[in-house]
# Entry
Amino acid sequence: MSANLTPRAKFATTLLKTAAALSRATGRGDGSVIGGRVGLIVEPRLLELLAEGRHVVLISGTNGKTTTTRFTTAAIEAIGKVATNSFGANMPTGHTTALAKAPKAEYAALECDEHYLGQLLDAANPKVVALLNLSRDQLDRAMEVTALAAKWRQTLQTSAGQSTIVANADDPLIVWAASVCPRVVWVAAGQSWTADSAICPNCGSHLDRFGEFWRCTNCGLNRPSPQWSVAQTGEAVVGPDGRRYELNLQLPGRVNRANAATALAIASLFGVDPGQAAPRLSEVASVAGRYAKVEREGRQLRLLLAKNPAGWLESFDMIEPNPPVVLSLNAREVDGFDTSWIYDVDFTSLAGRKVVVTGDRRTDLAVRLEVDGVDFIVVDDIKAAIAAVPPGPVEVVANYTAFQDIRAEFNRVN
Ligand SMILES: [Zn+2]
# Structure
């Protein structure tokens, strides 16, 4: 921990906290990024120095990393204090701030942007690295996803050192990247989006799939046997010894049960008894507004964020079968200006229910639903959407800025 910091690192930490506090006081977010930036200017090795002597887990992947980090933090808190980064601050500036703010925490659970994994491996010397999944973002194409997997594979080979990898056995790109490491714990975390892994990342041949098993017809890359999995029945995780750990999650869907399985696998590597960790996961009710439930005019809205094609598919798996669904789509800079990716998402599961479409690009979404034979109505904004559905539960699915707009309407609900 930070007891042995050099005077320069201590000074950098003080400046970091001051900058973060100033940023908060002037209403510019929580100050994690600016604070970290200031600290790293004064002491470029600050992240490394602050991580020294702690037990660190890095959690990365396209989807689910924020939730898995929250679950992991809740699980490890059973045995000690955990430093963790605030939502969205998943680059080295945010990690530096997270560690600086929790000098006494023996453990650290750090969500890591996919492109910074190598840098964090070098700086934080993690005990565990969890790799969840890789799929395309709005702007990426499958080629770029494979390139990222190749970069991970190379970086793990050179920098993973003594780390144990917790990796998703159901994602061929993750398996290919992680299999260069000597110690891997495999989790059957599922893959709702298979379009980016139709071909073998190792040799480019066709991948055969039978049920949950997959295998390359040419080089033999295949699904490793998982030690951890989501139970086939009920809401539980099955551990390496076949023991079943019951879940009572507030967060919906199979995807979150898979995130829970990954968190329990990580926690057990830190010496936490999964039987003690599993009930703690039910404390997580929402994650930066995601899954939050808000009420207005007798409508109980549940807010689901879906940033990319895989996220949209996962959200359709999470929604309850009967309530009306509000879909909101924007295409501002962080969302990507091009909405053509919505044609990669299958919307047919929404057919037969009440669907309301809104957001800046509601007409794009309307055309897409028309193609999939889903009936819908189009409204101007979330207020009009609320008025358009009867009192009772409502599922709301939105992409990044559309989600932030809705969150703002409800006073930035967490
Ligand atoms: Zn192959």
In short: Residues 7-25 form the longest helix (19 residues). The pocket of zinc ion is lined by residues 200, 202-203, 205, 216, 218-219, 221 (CB under 6 Å). The chain has 14 helices and 17 strands. The chain has a mean pLDDT of 93.
